[in-house]
Specification:
The complex is a heterodimer. Chain A is mainly beta. Chain A contains four helices and 18 strands. In chain A, the strands form three sheets. In chain A, strands 3, 5, 6, 8, 9, 10, 11, 12, 13, 15 and 18 form an eleven-stranded antiparallel beta sheet that branches. Chain A has a four-stranded antiparallel beta sheet with strand order 1-2-7-4, with no helix packed on it. Chain A starts with a strand and ends in a 6-residue tail after the last helix. By secondary structure, chain B is mainly beta. The chains are: A mainly beta, B mainly beta. Chains A and B meet through strand 4, strand 5, strand 6 and helix 4 of A and strand 12, helix 3, strand 15 and helix 4 of B. Strand 4 of chain A pairs antiparallel with strand 12 of chain B.
Chain lengths: 219, 225
């Protein structure tokens, strides 16, 4: 399978040249176009109970589409928000994802949920976290550009900007400063990531954008 | 006339470089800057009252602006409202069908009119009942939310309903299930798709404004009234 990320960084989308027998799992609604020889199949997101768990705690869709090439062809996938797409190779390692960042993965990648803790929940990232593991390619999307940071000493991250992190990263939520700074400084709660490990951040935040655009919307 | 696209694909603007006497028709509001030696005609371009009204059905404006260069070396800068891409579609005597709302401008040799692609594509094709038909010769500028890419189709091709920007009329569109089963199409989130057959070029947009709206909507703070 050859893959190309076109339209970087603001309208990134995934172009896959697929060979016979290759399969890609994509989020519901991610398909832009396909050759007719690439057949879609909708299934529960990993069995009924897993799907329910992923839906409720991982923010995933209940169903996913599997695209299998019967003959060579092209599949184009995208995400709802304008932003960048990151392709990562899993070689038996695991990654943790925040809600909404997974776009697609090749067939050898396992998707599951793991307990993330109350700190994550307070930080707006959910009680559970989505994990991807196994072997294959994973495509992640974000609003804005995506930035990878290697965390050696603790890193403070604004809530709503975390896209993915390695499982060696531990997260906790704290106020951005004292009570006054936290409430009046516009930063409120922040997350603190302790490594060593890598985190991926998005440079824009959909919640903040929604708040910004709201007064301009008619009605 | 020469057109350059700058700042692709997220903030694309078209710079139309024109010589004396050349004319360019643009969507009202698309001009963001221009040289001083232009004259501007605002009318329905021969379509009369009905032409203007029909154009409003296809998501365009009642009037169109024609920019006429009064001197050599004049520059007209056009840009859409949305963050997104602009593409130049060359027309050489064929017929192009452009998605409702995507047309941003065209050379004076291009005639635009409102048309439809049949009731099924109109109602279920996700692009509205009306399309803009471009005939004649010259450049056509289209603008969309997302990056634009061209696909040369020979045979059959499946595209999500909200991603078609424009296509040559040698291609036929039909509404189909996105999946083998009807249930799979809907639970898989793809719903209906367009089955494109024939031989010709189609332009697609990488992003879907409806999906972005759905993602953004639950995040919007509740508003009064």
């Amino acid at each position: 399978m050859r893959s190309e990320i076109a339209g970087k960084p603001s309208f990134a989308h995934i172009k896959l040249a697929m060979e016979p027998g290759e399969t890609v799992r994509a989020e519901a609604g991610a398909m832009v176009s396909r050759s007719p020889q690439i057949r879609p199949r909708a299934t529960f997101n990993g069995g009924f109970f897993t799907a329910l768990l992923l839906r409720i705690f991982g923010g995933e869709s209940l169903f996913v589409n599997w695209f299998t090439a019967e003959a060579p062809g092209e599949l184009v996938l995208t995400q709802p928000a304008p932003g960048d797409v990151l392709e990562l190779d899993l070689k038996g390692n695991e990654l943790c994802l925040t809600e909404g960042s997974l776009i697609a993965a090749t067939a050898g990648v396992d998707i599951g949920v793991a307990w993330a803790g109350f700190a994550s929940w307070i930080g707006g990232e959910g009680l559970f976290r989505l994990t991807v593991s196994g072997r294959g390619k994973v495509w992640l999307g974000g609003f804005g550009a995506l930035v990878a940071i290697d965390v050696h000493s603790p890193l403070t991250i604004d809530t709503g900007h975390l896209v993915a992190y390695e499982p060696t990263i531990s997260l906790r939520t704290r106020m951005s400063g004292g009570i006054f700074t936290s409430l009046a400084g516009g930063e409120g709660l922040v997350m603190e990531a302790t490594g060593p490990g890598r985190v991926w951040l998005q440079t824009r935040n959909l919640d903040a954008f929604a708040g910004w655009i709201s007064p301009y919307l008619p009605g | 006339m020469q057109i350059d696209l700058v700042n692709r694909p997220s903030a694309t603007a078209a710079i139309v470089r024109m010589s004396r006497g050349e004319r360019f028709v643009a969507e009202p509001g698309a001009m963001i800057a221009m040289s001083t030696r232009f004259s501007l005609d605002t009318d329905t371009r021969g379509g009369g009252l009905m032409g203007g009204i029909k154009r409003m059905f296809s998501g365009e404006s009642f009037f169109q602006n024609t920019f006429v260069a009064q001197d050599d070396g004049q520059e007209l800068v056009l840009a859409p409202t949305l963050p997104g891409d602009v593409e130049i579609l060359p027309l050489r005597g064929g017929r192009l069908l452009v998605q409702r709302g995507a047309w941003m401008g065209s050379g004076d040799g291009v005639t635009t009119k409102t048309t439809n692609q049949g009731l099924t594509v109109g109602l279920f094709g996700g692009q509205g009942l009306f399309w803009i038909e471009c005939t004649g010769e010259g450049p056509v500028l289209v603008a969309t939310f997302g990056a634009i890419s061209a696909v040369d189709i020979d045979g059959e091709f499946i595209v999500d309903t909200s991603h078609v920007v424009a296509h040559e009329d040698t291609l036929q569109l039909a509404v189909t299930k996105a999946n083998d089963s009807l249930l799979g199409s809907f639970v898989g989130g793809e719903g209906l798709a367009l089955r494109v057959t024939g031989r010709g070029r189609m332009w697609l947009q990488s992003h879907n404004p409806t999906d972005f709206g759905r993602t953004l909507d639950p995040l919007l703070p509740a508003r009064k009234g």
